[in-house]
Amino acid sequence: MPSNNDLERWSPLILARISGILGLIGIAFGAFDIGHIRGALIVAGNPTLTVQNILAHQTLFRLGFTGHLLELICNAFAEIIGFYLFWRVNLIVAAIALFAASSASPLRASTCSIRMCR
Asked: Tell me, what's the pLDDT at 9?
């Protein structure tokens, strides 16, 4: 278990920048998945053609799914950093925000897999 001094060696400015970079990486992965890959593979109203597209471009499908999961991982680390930054300001609000964000991530992951399978 790291001591208090180990945790405090990271300045809030550096942690905020790391959190921002993780957020930007998550946005990039999510936008690539939603904007490019789903548009290329999913045909609205035609599940047969969608399945044929996915089978024909399995690598692209897996790349999009992996990108979306990486977005969720980046968001999880950014949420933990956000909690660490705000727990001294208001512990209860920071804990509620962390709980809400961490409970939303599994839901987002499950909807990601459901949307890919529709």
From this structure: 74
Q: How far apart are CA 14 and CA 107, in angstroms?
A: 30
H or E element, residue 65: helix 58-86
Residue among 59, 60, 97, 95 nearest 75 (CA): 97
pTM above 0.85, yes or no: no
> Sign of the CA dihedral 106, 15, 21, 27?
positive
| Count of beta carbons in the 10 Å neighbourhood of residue 68 | 23
User: Which carries the bigger pLDDT value, residue 1 or residue 9?
Assistant: 9
Separation CA 87–CA 95 (nearest Å)? 7
Q: Identify which of 86, 101, 81 has the alpha carbon closest to the alpha carbon of residue 15.
A: 81
Confidence of residue 21 (pLDDT cuts 50, 70, 90): very high
